Amino acid sequence: MDYFSVLVVDDEEDFLETIVKRLKKRKVSAIGVKSGEEALEVIKEMPIDVVILDIKMPGGMDGIETLREIKKIQPICEVILLTGHGSMETSIEGMKLGAFDYLLKPVKLEELLPKLADAFEKKDTQDQKIRSAQIKKLFRYS
Amino acid sequence: MKTTVYARLHRRIITLALIVSFTPLFIVGATMYNKVARMYNNKVEEQIKYRARAQAEALDLFLKERTAILGAIADTHNFNDMLDEKRLLRIIDLMNLRAGAFVDLGVIDGSGRQQAYVGPYELKGKNYYEQPWFAEVMSKGVYVSDVYMGYRQLPHFIIAVRRNENQKSWILRATIDPDIFGDIVRSAQIGKTGDAYLVNKEGIYQTNPRFGGKILSKNNVDTTHFGSNATVIEHTNRQGQNLFYAGTWLKNKNWLLVISQGSFEELSDLTAIRNLEATIIIVGILAIVLTTFFISRLVIIRLQEADKKMGELNAQLVQSDKLAALGKMAAGVAHEINNPLAVILQKTGWMEDLLEEEAFQKSEELEEFRTSIKKIEEHVERARKVVHNMLGYARKMEPRMEDVDVNGTINQTLSLLENHARINNIEIKTTFQQELPIIASDQAQLQQVFLNIISNAIDAIGKNGRVEIETSSSDSIINVLISDNGPGLTEAQQKKVFDPFYTTKQTGKGTGLGLWVTYSIIEKLGGAVFLTSRIGKGSTFTVQIPNITPEKK
């Protein structure tokens, strides 16, 4: 698996801490934050390939709002939604807003990793397209 | 308990309706009858009074005429001429020719001796000096006697007039034919019970009455009741008949003409009216009673039906309220459980990761750790499934409308259950309505519904039994009836059957979510599902799916 960076957003501290540890153990560069606001800070500071976003967070920005903001800052950054059963409608809305996919909580890492890989691949392809387009552009003007 | 409430209401409606309708009926009936009776009585009284007066006038005229004739004869003849009996005979013939009713004629001298006589009796030479009427006629000049027996020993009365001739008085006396006179009186008798007769001041009959006496016998009518003008009294006789009596005193003689009339006869018209009225009232009462009973029963039956429907509606409302509340709660609980489960799963995952480290690989208890962690994960998975089930089926998706053949869907479902049923020797019989309309619904969810209900039915029977599935349709719904001949459910069980986590199966065998999910799905599809069950007979689930025609593509 290529090296890529993941941002995990979840208000449950124990979950956050553990999943970050486990991702790091699998050579994924992972950062964990507890709220939408913090997530936006991170996105602004550094390039993130994939965001794992809990849809239901108490207080502050909720998942959908955060997703919208993320897409504004880094449009090609992929977002995977974590959702409970009660929030199917929200997940659908999230997908419409450009989320890559959603996963039902509780989720096993074994299920999450392939999704992460897919998301990264998509993002990477997109990056490469952009890059090659830029190169073509450079050639055209040269 | 409930029936007595209805019975009491029924009684009250009937009582009230009957009182309200009978009271005016009776009041109107009684008032009308009384008014008519009074009018009728007045009329009858007037009639009888008029008759009495007219008849009395006729009698007066009769007597006056006879007296006048007699007076005229006496005034125009000499005493000596009158002694000639041949002449007397001619005179009486003449009198009878002109007026009639004279029986005999006698000439009596001042000493009371009858000097001349023509008539059927041998009365010549009789002396009337001692007779009371002789003195009367001598003093008053004209005299009409009461009826008496006299020498001839037959009831009769006489008219006598006095003539003064040359300082000597003589008397011309005539006997009036009692039959003719009586006939005139009796001509006032009317009907079968009417009577007419004359009585004198002492109440002695002067003519033969039709009933209750003979001439010269005593009559029991009190003559003092009657005045000079015609007077009517009502009197009940010894036979218990109510009689009207009209009495008029004659002008020329103190005789009382009495006309009596049985009121029941005279008033037979009134009786007819009364009978007619009674008939109408009785028919009316019957009609009212019947209508009241019929209508009130109808009302009560309708009321019972309405109450029953209301009760059923209430029960359904309570049921769906309860399930909605439980659904909300379950969703909340599920979310709260999912978060800790997610943490546990990550922690165990981390522990597994750590076990791969070299330091742990050497541990003797490595396998123990591994299996424990696996167990934890298994149970997290189990809890996760419960939550999935709880929310899953009903919440997973909004219904996806497609063309659904309900019969086909049931057949597909049955193919899944065939094996299970055959092993347990359970026969599944289907009675499908052919050409059941294709509807717009969610096939997967309907299949879930049928699967839940039919597998429940199979589980309820256990072994050896029968499940019947029947489909039918109306304009608005498709009905699916799924019946089993299992043990049935008690009423308390029936109320809880759609509750989540309610199961009659052994612990661990059922989640108690199947029928709850079924209920939620059907509700989302806009239909209804309900259960009728009897202990020992089995249960029937009725699934109603809205008959929605798919949009043409």
Give the structure's gist in a few sentences.
The complex is a heterodimer of chains A (142) and B (553). Chain A is built from 5 helices and 5 strands.
Strand residue content of chain A: 15-25%
Bin the helical content of chain A.
40-55%
Shape of chain A: globular
Q: The CATH topology of chain A is what?
A: Rossmann fold
CATH class of chain A: Alpha Beta
pLDDT below 50 for ≥5 consecutive residues: which ranges of chain A? none
Which homologous superfamily in CATH is the superfamily of the largest domain in chain B?
PAS domain
Identify the quaternary structure here. Answer: heterodimer
CATH superfamily of chain A: Response regulator
> Biggest sheet of chain A: strands, sense, closure?
5 strands, parallel
Which second-level CATH architecture of the largest domain in chain B applies?
Answer: 2-Layer Sandwich
Q: Please give the number of β-strands of chain B.
A: 16
Can you tell me about this structure?
The complex is a heterodimer of chains A (142) and B (553). Chain A is 54% helix and 18% strand. Chain A has a five-stranded parallel beta sheet with strand order 2-1-3-4-5, with helices on both faces. Chain A has helices at residues 13-25, 36-45, 63-73, 88-96, 109-141, and strands at 5-9, 29-33, 50-54, 78-83, 101-104. The termini of chain A are far apart. Chain A is globular. The longest helix of chain A has 33 residues, at 109-141. Chain A has a single domain (5-141), classed as Rossmann fold. With 142 residues, chain A is of the alpha/beta class. Chain B has 553 residues and is an alpha+beta fold. Chain B has two domains: 1-266, PAS domain (Beta-Lactamase); 399-546, Heat Shock Protein 90. Helix content of chain B is 53%, strand content 19%. Chain B has 13 helices and 16 strands. In chain B, a hairpin with a 5-residue loop joins strand 1 and strand 2 (114-118). In chain B, helix 1 runs antiparallel to helix 7 and helix 11 packs antiparallel against helix 13 (514-524). Chain B is rod-shaped and about 195 Å long. The A-B interface holds A 12, 14-15, 18-19, 21-22, 25, 56, 84-86, 88, 104-109 and B 331-332, 334-335, 338-339, 341-347, 349-350, 353, 380, 384, 387-388, 391-392, 395-397.
